[in-house]
Specification:
The complex is a heterodimer of chains A (316) and B (241). Chain A is an alpha/beta fold and 316 residues long. Chain A has helices at residues 48-55, 78-83, 100-104, 106-110, 115-128, 145-157, 175-192, 203-209, 228-233, 238-244, 248-254, 281-291, 311-315, and strands at 8-15, 25-32, 37-41, 63-68, 71-72, 85-89, 163-167, 195-200, 212-217, 221-226, 273-276, 295-299, 305-310. In chain A, α5 (115-128) crosses α6. Chain B contains nine helices and no strands. In chain B, α2 packs antiparallel against α3, α2 runs antiparallel to α7 and α5 (108-132) packs antiparallel against α7 (149-182). Chain B is elongated, with a radius of gyration of 22 Å. Classes of the chains: A alpha/beta (316), B mainly alpha (241). The A-B interface holds A 56, 58, 78-83, 87, 89-98, 106-107, 110, 139-142, 152, 155, 165 and B 135-148, 151, 155-156, 159-160, 162, 235-238, 240-241.
Chain lengths: 316, 241
């Protein structure tokens, strides 16, 4: 599959609903580099979903501009614009009256792709999102919530869009399946390298999924736009610090693994808890606390000891 | 006034004089009468009845579909159009047949106009409800993927309205078959003809009443079953989950 991605630029993008005080999105300016995931997060009323829907013109801009690879969305035909962008929503919105295959083929069919192409593409995408080929002939009513969202993702990817808009895609899914879908989505993104705008109200999800996070405050104003690490370690103000939570230091630990630490040599290792190097520092700390121990033995692939990490190392 | 058939080579009144014992006793169901008059009374009446129903349901559906499109697209018109079909439905059928006579005379057209006007109520409501039943998230994803308004209608809203529409077709068909028997009050036509004839006999000619009435019931049940099967095969997605 060819990988292509577009740079997305919000340029003073503003939305004011007529008859309502204040803006829903207020002079939002930010650039999402090609191939990165930008998470829009913030309290309700922060205009995250509005900002997302400005991009495919489901909501018209009041002023300002949005550009995809340098071209203003206002210069493009609105149906062509929408067909060129993958769109995933929380409630999925699969067409109940057609099969999974036909659902996935929606946009390719609109674009005039032949039936054989759609069949092959649908099979390829089902495999990509981890569903058995036999799902092609099923109807949405025969799928679980998690399976529906996988099909929703496959449908959004069908025409190989350079840009994906995802509006709380995992918001209606139970926590265990949600974690799995997040992991698989990240694995997919690692392969596909799409430019993604991802809306969530869940800070942990934002930290996990985002290459960059845009925190919006009430009235649709951008509070901070940065990498998860920067936001957790250097929130620009009280609002951001509050929003990411008092446990932001712990959350920052979840972004780093034991392998990132400078380990002390493994000398006295008897009885130490052993953890693989790719364990997050947050999980390692949690286990140290649970086991009431002071240090862990970090092991590499195949179980070879790499060194020892102490509680102090983790808290530094 | 009376619309009972008298012409066509004499009255089709059973000759009590030289029939079987069953006919002499005016039994509830005498098979030999049915056999004898299948060709000249029952079968033509049944064919006419099917014709009345098919024409009324088809034209009624066509008119209601156009009205429903207007009511669906322009919400302002929905309530008045609904009230209009409601009003038509509320007129007692015998009164409506009579009301139409000055305009269309004692003709099959009169019967069809009345029957059509009764189907509108069921059709209008079911079509509009069906089109409205499409979940918001389905419409949003359709719009977000770049379906035009027209594509959304033909590819999403209309197919999803099919179960409600077919349910309407079933109700309209069965009720038209039933109401059409009353049309013979006006004109000897359809299965109502033999029914009214039988009722006009001094003691009520039971065999004819049972045979014609039974055919009407059988026709209604058959039509309903066939439509139910069509509904199942046309909407495989609707009976899952």
């Amino acid at each position: 599959m060819p990988t292509e991605a577009a740079e997305l630029v919000f340029d003073e993008a503003t939305k004011v609903y007529p008859g309502r005080d204040g803006a829903a999105v207020d002079h939002l300016s930010l650039t999402v580099p090609a191939g990165e995931i930008c998470v829009l997060v913030g309290p309700s009323g922060g205009g995250k979903t509005t900002a997302l829907k400005l991009v495919n013109r489901l909501i018209p801009l009041t002023s300002g501009d949005i550009r995809i690879d340098g071209r203003s969305i206002l210069d493009l035909d609105v149906t062509e614009l929408r067909r060129s962008i993958g769109y995933v929503i929380q409630q999925v919105g699969l067409f109940p009256h057609v099969t999974v295959e036909a659902n996935i083929g929606t946009v390719p069919k609109l674009l005039g792709r032949p039936r054989s192409w759609i069949k092959a593409r649908s099979a390829e995408l089902l495999a990509l999102v981890g569903l058995d080929p036999s799902y092609a002939k099923r109807f949405p009513a025969q799928l679980s919530g998690g399976e529906r969202q996988r099909v929703g993702l496959a449908r959004a990817l069908a025409a190989n869009p350079a840009l994906m808009l995802m509006d709380e895609p995992f918001g209606a899914i139970d926590p265990i399946v949600r974690t799995r879908l997040q992991d698989e989505f990240l694995r997919l993104q690692h392969e596909l390298r799409k430019t993604v705008v991802f809306v969530t109200h869940d800070v942990d999800e934002a930290i996990k999924v985002g290459d960059r996070i845009a925190i919006l405050r009430e009235g649709g104003r951008l509070a901070q736009y940065d990498t998860p690490k920067q936001i957790l370690e250097h929130p620009v103000d009280e609002f951001v610090a509050d929003f990411v939570g008092r446990d932001r230091a712990l959350k920052a630990l979840s972004l780093r693994t034991l392998g990132d630490l400078e380990l002390s040599p493994a000398i006295e290792v008897d009885g130490l808890l052993q953890l693989p190097a790719e364990t997050s520092q947050r999980d390692a700390l949690a286990m140290l606390v649970a086991e009431r121990s002071e240090a862990v033995l970090v092991v590499g692939a195949g179980g070879s000891p790499l060194g020892v990490a102490t509680r102090e190392d983790l808290l530094k | 006034m009376t619309g009972f058939r008298v012409a066509d080579g004499g009255p089709v009144i059973p000759n009590f004089g030289h029939g079987s014992a069953c006919l002499k006793n005016n039994g509830w169901f005498c098979p030999e009468w049915v056999r004898e008059h299948w060709g000249d009374i029952l079968q033509p009446a049944l064919v006419q009845h099917i014709e009345l129903t098919v024409i009324a349901v088809s034209i009624g559906f066509g008119i209601a579909f156009v009205l429903a499109l207007v009511g669906f697209r322009f919400r302002l018109f929905n309530a008045p159009l609904g009230a209009f079909t409601d009003l038509l439905y509320a007129i007692p059928s015998i009164a409506l047949f009579q009301l139409l006579v000055p305009f269309t005379g004692l003709t099959v057209t009169t019967i069809e106009v009345a029957l059509v006007s009764y189907t509108l109520f069921v059709f209008y409501r079911n079509i509009v409800e069906g089109l409205r039943s499409v979940p918001d998230e389905v419409l949003e994803s359709a719009r977000g993927m770049g379906l035009t308004r027209r594509q959304t209608f033909w590819r999403v809203e209309l197919p999803l309205a099919v179960p409600a529409i077919l349910a309407g077709v079933r109700v309209a068909t069965v009720s038209t078959i039933s109401i059409a028997t009353v049309a013979a009050f006006l004109l000897y036509y359809g299965l109502g003809g033999p029914i009214f004839d039988a009722l006009a006999q001094p003691d009520i000619f039971r065999t004819e009443l049972v045979a014609a009435g039974g055919l009407a019931i059988l026709l209604a049940l058959t039509a309903d079953t066939l439509l139910a099967l069509a509904q199942r095969s046309l909407t495989p997605w609707n009976r899952l989950g």
